[in-house]
Design brief:
Elements: H1 2-15, H2 19-22, E1 44-53, E2 56-65, E3 73-79, H3 86-93, H4 96-102, E4 105-108, H5 129-143, E5 146-156, H6 158-169, E6 177-180, H7 186-191, E7 200-205, H8 222-232, E8 241-244, E9 254-260, E10 269-275, H9 300-308
Helix pairs in contact: 5-6
């Protein structure tokens, strides 16, 4: 129970930092929870490896199935929120389930100074995260029994924004992406021209106080973010379907899925709208007040694993 409370407290302190602050005062934001360990998941093995790119060395957390299949494994790169740690991100999302139940290698790198260089307009980034993550993918696929065509990426908040940047700038390496509590930045929207379609999912709460559902001066909003990726993936917008997911838990939230797979690229774009949902990972650890509800009517982690099973970097044209 004490560890559980530490996880929530550390996450809440970190998530209090708004994205507007991130762009102007990176060094003033503490990384909270460095001492909180990974909560192990039965059926998995975890280890750390230091991976270096241009003198930037980071200790990367790996979570893999305890028993390795003879088939090269799919990979999920999971990126933590602003000021977070790999361990806190893995704990709050139950990332180990992706390895234990679905056979993924889940790889969680830490950001330098706690934040990802997700904004292409940032003129003074702490690190070249596009370069670092690119090198991470090349290193992992060269050293381990994993499938280089089945490397996907997801992240929460700042990690979700970094996911969209990687999909824009390194689409040949990213089979698919899921951005949780994150949208398209206006600055990324202006320059994003992916060389291949990348299936993309957004998960956004209507009561998110940090990343407003309808956007801000720097974020495009849920509808435009979804529309951007239906465009990149050459989807027929008139074929978007809307489905209300079953309300399984009476927690004041509900989830609507906008789905479009009518894409000449053979890709897909989805938007999960969490009514009354906050700045959180739905289905993960409970509410991080005052940042809103973590809906229990969507198991985001299972959705991610199922979605990524469909795609390789050769799936789209």
């Amino acid at each position: 129970m004490k560890l559980f409370k530490q996880i929530l407290l550390g996450a809440a302190m970190i998530l209090a930092v708004t994205p507007a602050v991130q762009a102007s005062s990176h060094s003033t934001i503490p990384v909270v929870g460095k001492g909180i360990p990974l909560v192990p998941t039965k059926g998995t093995t975890s280890f750390y490896q230091t991976i270096t790119y241009q003198n930037d060395s980071r200790s990367v957390l790996f979570i893999k199935p305890a028993t390795q299949s003879s088939t090269p494994a799919p990979v999920i790169i999971m990126l933590h929120y602003h000021g977070g740690t790999a361990e806190l991100q893995a704990n709050l999302s139950h990332a180990g389930n992706l390895a234990a139940q679905m056979g993924y290698w889940v790889i969680l790198p830490p950001a330098v100074a706690g934040y990802w260089n997700a904004d292409p307009a940032d003129t003074a980034p702490t690190a070249d995260d596009v370069g670092y993550l690119t090198n991470l993918i090349h290193t992992v696929t060269a050293q381990y029994p994993v499938d280089a065509t089945r490397v996907s990426m997801t992240g929460l908040s700042d990690g979700g924004f970094m996911t969209t940047r990687m999909a824009c700038e390194q689409p040949d390496l990213i089979a698919a992406g899921v951005a949780v509590a994150a949208q398209m930045r206006d600055s990324l929207q202006a320059v994003c021209r992916p060389s291949r379609p990348v299936p993309m999912v957004f998960v956004l709460g209507t009561k998110d106080p940090l990343v407003p559902y309808n956007g801000t001066y720097q974020f495009t909003g849920a509808a435009k973010s979804f529309g951007t990726w239906t465009g990149f993936n050459a989807c027929n917008t008139s074929d978007t379907t809307t489905t209300n997911l079953p309300v399984l838990v009476n927690d004041g939230t509900s989830v609507t899925l906008q789905h479009n797979a009518a894409c000449t690229s053979l890709g897909e774009a989805d938007l999960y709208t969490v009514a009354n949902g906050g700045h959180a990972w739905p289905g993960g650890q409970p509410n991080l007040a005052p940042f809103g509800k973590a809906s229990q009517n969507l198991d985001t982690t299972t959705m991610i694993g199922t979605f990524f099973q469909q795609w390789t970097t050769k799936s789209t044209t």
